[in-house]
Design a protein that fits this description.
Elements (H helix, E strand, L loop, with lengths): L3 H11 L4 H5 L3 H14 L4 H17 L2 H8 L10 H23 L15 H11 L3 H14 L4 H13 L3 H13 L5 H6 L4 H4 L4 H6 L30 H13 L5 H12 L1
Length: about 270
């Protein structure tokens, strides 16, 4: 396969001898350069130098697709022109980039969670979540629960959205419901960025110790009070030493930073 840069360098360095023409497969032109060179060597050598430089400029400035169509046609195998193939490569790269971005911001529950095909609010909630419209996502996921109250994906995503909105009690409630209905990927609960707000709450330690379940079931939060934080739930499990030990374990696992550890420790010691 002929290389545009190599051809340009040959034209610039030894274009007066027609080396770039031989490289490009234009043997006839290359021979013509060699035959005419002695004739113009004495008085008009600068003409050949100028021609070589001019050929180099043309080659360097030529579009890659046009170069391939002109000099690399022998490599085509019923796959369209090189330009078409370059266009297809660019389209494939763009598609892969869009797919990666789509997966990066996907916030649905694990794929094993089944969702009714006739529940359009799940897709709406996901789209609003990805657009950072968390209040709109909360409304959509709650509408999904009206159709299917036991939908694990809706409860899990509501927990994520409420956590990002710092609606602590509502986030704990929906995460509890997701686990009660079969969500068992505890590693996701411990590492998902959107649940980080819950993990720094003092209630999280007894919540985790209880198998990521609330000690006392809550009534379904009123969805017309999304902008209000429910009163903090009292931590009634375990003595102070046990809670401090669990807090230290979270820090050792890397789930809490040093600053978060000190803040929660001070809250327990008050």
């Amino acid at each position: 396969m002929k290389n545009k840069t190599v051809a340009g360098i040959l034209a610039l360095v030894a274009g007066y001898m027609g080396l770039h023409r031989f490289y490009l497969g234009q043997v006839g032109l290359g021979i013509a350069y060699i035959v005419l060179l002695p004739i113009f060597l004495v008085n008009n050598f600068w003409v050949f130098l100028f021609i070589g430089v001019l050929d180099a400029i043309i080659l360097f400035s030529m579009d890659q697709g046009a170069f391939d169509d002109k000099y690399n046609k022998h490599l085509e195998r019923n796959q369209g022109s090189f330009k078409d193939r370059n266009d297809r490569r660019r389209e494939n790269r763009n598609q892969r980039y869009e797919d990666r971005n789509s997966r990066r911001y996907e916030q649905v529950a694990p794929k094993r969670t089944a969702t009714p095909k006739n529940n359009p609010h799940l897709k709406e909630g996901k789209a609003k979540f990805e657009d950072y419209d968390y209040e709109g996502a909360i409304i959509a996921f709650n509408n999904a629960l009206k159709i299917d109250p036991k939908n694990i994906a809706a409860h899990f995503n509501l927990a994520c959205a409420h956590s990002l909105m710092e609606h602590k009690d509502k986030a704990f409630y929906h995460l509890d419901r997701a686990v009660a209905l079969g969500f068992d990927d505890t590693e996701v609960i411990k590492t998902r960025d959107h649940l980080a707000y819950l993990r720094i709450q003092p209630e999280f330690l007894p919540f985790e110790a209880n198998g990521f379940r609330l000690a006392k079931q809550l009534n379904t939060p009123q969805e017309n009070l999304l902008d209000k934080q429910a009163p903090p739930q009292q931590n009634s499990q375990g003595d102070l030493l046990d809670q401090l030990q669990k807090l230290a374990k979270l820090k050792e696992k890397g789930l809490l930073t040093e600053e978060e550890f000190q803040v929660q420790k001070e809250k327990l010691l008050r």
